[in-house]
Write a structure and sequence with these properties.
- This protein is an alpha+beta fold.
- It has 2 domains: about 60 residues, Nuclear Transport Factor 2, Chain: A; about 35 residues, no CATH class.
- It is built from 3 helices and 4 strands.
- It has a 4-stranded antiparallel beta sheet.
- The longest helix is centred in the C-terminal third of the chain and has 27 residues.
Length: about 130
């Protein structure tokens, strides 16, 4: 009986993907019946105000009967994202010069206001008539 318990959650094959504050674990495990399934775990590091840290973990269990559909949808979704946005990462965290759309709109609005003010000044000047112009 003890031998069977050890066999249940034994990792058969594992890979780790470190990605910044996140780490992904891909583990092939064995069922009680001796079949294999995949667990995908995400572990994300957080820091408390006092400087200590903790991890939040999320796990997906993926069984063989779902492999094909899961793989197809994952491929479709990743392709869609790359087709729509390209491979370049667009984010504040990854790019120190990143400007959010809100910031860009705000700076564009400021630029437009400045242009309007300049136009008004130009209009006011053109209405003034000086003797030299006559």
């Amino acid at each position: 009986m003890e031998e069977n318990k050890q066999h249940v959650n034994e990792d058969i094959y594992s890979k780790v993907l470190r990605a910044g504050r996140r780490t992904y674990f891909f583990d092939v495990r064995s069922t009680k019946a001796g079949d294999y399934y995949l667990t995908i775990s995400e572990s994300k590091k957080f820091t408390n105000e006092d400087g200590t840290f903790y991890f939040k973990k999320h796990k997906i269990y993926l069984y063989k009967e779902d492999f094909e559909n899961f793989s197809n949808i994952l491929g479709e979704m990743t392709k869609y994202i790359i087709d729509e946005k390209g491979l370049e990462v667009i984010s504040e965290i990854h790019d120190k010069d990143f400007k959010s759309k809100k910031e860009e709109e705000s700076s564009n609005d400021d630029s437009k206001e400045d242009e309007v003010k300049e136009d008004k000044k130009d209009d006011e000047k053109s209405d003034e008539v000086e003797f030299e112009d006559i």
